[in-house]
Design goal:
Elements (H helix, E strand, L loop, with lengths): L5 H11 L6 E7 L7 H12 L5 E7 L4 H7 L6 E5 L6 E4 L6 H14 L6 H7 L6 E7 L6 H14 L3 E7 L4 H6 L7 E4 L3 E4 L4 H10 L6
Parallel strand pairs: 1-2, 4-6, 5-6
Antiparallel strand pairs: 1-3, 3-4, 5-7, 7-8
Helix pairs in contact: 4-6, 5-8
Length: 216
């Protein structure tokens, strides 16, 4: 059984023919208590079959603690999109629905090793001097969520100190409750700054930087 239609495969093959450098898709799954792990594994396998430049690795979240520590993953299913280095791109939960496009665009950016963020944004991000974790809570049916996810992931690509997570809110209800996720996309920066909506790039960058400032 294939999750991708033939027309989608042909489109993706054409897109992936533009890949500059190898990309590695690293997937953490677990056999028990994981509703979408098998579906996500099948999806990643299909993507890997569409280009020689896309490599795929699978790890068992339950037993391969060394890899969990290496990639700093704390739940499953977890997908890392890695290029010449680990850019800090994370997907927690299956990237289905609208989020599938985010995966494809991330693969293209990671292969190139850069993004289309404005030069002003890139300059601002150079001021980051301590670790930043961005969590963007989404649902597959949210048409505005991919924009927030992509902006977060672009920031992670541009800064070695940033890790950016997509978190599928319905797959992780306890975490969503902890962060009072009532509307998506909701973005949390360092458990300190939060905002809702697919805000413009410049505002998103400023929100990330504001989370690094001392708060009275």
């Amino acid at each position: 059984m294939s999750l991708l239609q033939e027309k989608d495969k042909e489109y993706l093959k054409n897109e992936f023919s533009k890949l500059k450098n190898d990309v590695k898709l690293v997937l953490f799954t677990q056999e028990k208590d994981c509703t979408y792990c098998n579906d996500e594994k099948m999806l990643i396998e299909e993507l890997g079959s569409l280009s020689e430049k896309i490599k795929v690795e699978y790890y068992d979240y339950a037993v391969q603690n060394d890899k969990k520590e290496q990639y700093r993953v704390d739940k499953y299913p977890a997908l890392i999109i890695e290029g010449a280095k680990d850019y800090g791109i994370r997907y927690y939960g299956i990237p289905a629905g609208y989020e599938f496009a985010s995966v494809i665009e991330d693969i293209m950016d990671v292969s190139a090793g850069n993004t289309n963020l404005t030069e002003q944004s890139k300059k601002k991000l150079k001021s980051i001097d301590k670790p930043v974790r961005i969590q963007v809570f989404v649902t597959p049916s949210c048409p505005y969520c991919p924009r927030a996810v992509r902006t977060a992931h672009k920031i992670a690509i541009e800064s070695d100190l940033v890790t950016a997570d997509m978190v599928e809110a319905t797959e992780f209800p306890e975490i969503s409750t902890r962060y009072s996720v009532q509307a998506v996309p909701k973005t949390i920066v360092n458990d300190d700054t939060e905002f809702v909506g697919a805000v413009p790039e410049d505002q998103f960058v400023d929100e990330v930087l504001s989370a690094l400032k001392p708060h009275e």
